[in-house]
Each structure stands twice: as C-alpha cells, then as structure tokens.
Amino acid sequence: xxxxxxxxxxxxxxxxxxxxxxxxxxxxxxxxxxxxxxxxxxxxxxxxxxxxxxxxxxxxxxxxxxxxxxxxxxxxxxxxxxxxxxxxxxxxxxxxxxxxxxxxxxxxxxxxxxxxxxxxxxxxxxxxxxxxxxxxxxxxxxxxxxxxxxxxxxxxxxxxxxxxxxxxxxxxxxxxxxxxxxxxxxxxxxxxxxxxxxxxxxxxxxxxxxxxxxxxxxxxxxxxxxxxxxxxxxxxxxxxxxxxxxxxxxxxxxxxxxxxxx
Length: 262
Known about the structure:
Layout: E1 2-6, H1 19-26, E2 31-34, H2 52-67, E3 75-80, H3 82-93, E4 98-104, H4 114-117, H5 123-132, H6 135-146, H7 156-172, H8 177-189, E5 200-206, H9 215-224, E6 227-231, H10 238-241, H11 243-251
Parallel strand pairs: 1-2, 1-3, 3-4, 4-5, 5-6
C-alpha cells in the first residue's frame, strides 16, 4: 500500500516538511510518496497544466515513473487545497486506483460560491504581493494566511524559520508567474461532480482557516454524505498547524465506499 501526498497552488512536495516522516512513522509498512505538479518543485521548469484533469494524467505518469511501474495495490490519496481538487478528479476518473481519499481544506465549484472559496478580504493583498512583492514578502503572506499556530508573537522565531526555509525552496525551484496563472486557471475552471467519487472519503478542515472559508468543507461533507473532521484551532495548512491531529484522523477506520447511486 502506498500513500500519495499532493500539495496546493505554488507549493511543492518539500512543503510537507516533517509531516512525511511523521506519517511514515505511523504507517511503517506503507510507502509514502510525494509528487509535484508540473511547474512546481523539481518540475518548476515545466509548464503547468491548465486543467485539473490534465494534472491528474501528469501525476499518474509521474507516479508510474517514480515507482518504476504502476504501484502495487490501490493508493491512499491525501491532498490539500488545489491538490484536493486533483485528488477528487483522480478518484472520479479512476476509482479502481484509489483506496481512500483524505481531503484537507479544499473548496470545490459548484458546491461553494467564489467568496467562500477564497475569502474576499484577501483579494487585494494576494494580487499585489504575487505581482509586486518579493519572495520574502510572498512567503510571509502565505504563512500568515495558511497558519494559525505560527501567527502571533509567541511563535515569532519559529515563523521566521519557516519563512526562511520556504524562501530557500522558492529560490531553488522558482515558480514562474506564468505557471501561477495556469494553475489558478485550472482551479477556477474545475467543476467537481455532483456525487462523491465511489471511494472511501474523509474531509478534514481547520475552523480558523483565514484563506478558504471552512464552510466549503462543511457544505461538501453534507452534500456528499461524507465524514467531516473539523479542527477547532487550525488554519488552512492543517499538516503544518497540527500534524499529529491529521495523522490521528487517518488512523481511524475510514468509512466504507458507497456506490455511485448512493
């Protein structure tokens, strides 16, 4: 059995940080694989896909190459934000390849309106920082919007270390502005299915998410009759804010998959 972990917009596999080792410790007999979208991380020189379905196909090819062959057995997909959109599309197109899905702080059209999928108060600062800000300013903003644990004076030193690390990642594998726009285009034009994919599913969300309204996860869980676990204090980047909590949710038995007609 293999886990496949997917990050979000402009993020790469190394943004999982120490979470990968923690998940491996919890599942010593299972393989933990982290993949990058084209345009991010080790694939930063490539052009990003302009649709979520294209991202699925690229990841399936990448997974096959990384494993030397198709991974034995079904995979367990854990994904956050944009990565969760891709995970849903993957499970919809190839349910026979997926053991279960863990979706973290995602937002899916048409199930949630645009003003919940990205909080309006962030529009101006995001546009300005992405177009005009330095890498340092961009990564500081991303941490502020995605983490609750590392905001405030109590975590000032830790936050500075995280930002410095993220800046080093961005400098090693810079994400081109063109690719940011292509990834945004893919996310904005993706439409999730009305029915949940026919695989086991769990939705995790941070109640204090400052980037995406957690109502998106609540609504999705209601419409798809899926289990929802809501962290009362965490933000958008749940694995960063509380890795142990995320892993504890996966250690429980995930609900049995339902038939498409359920």
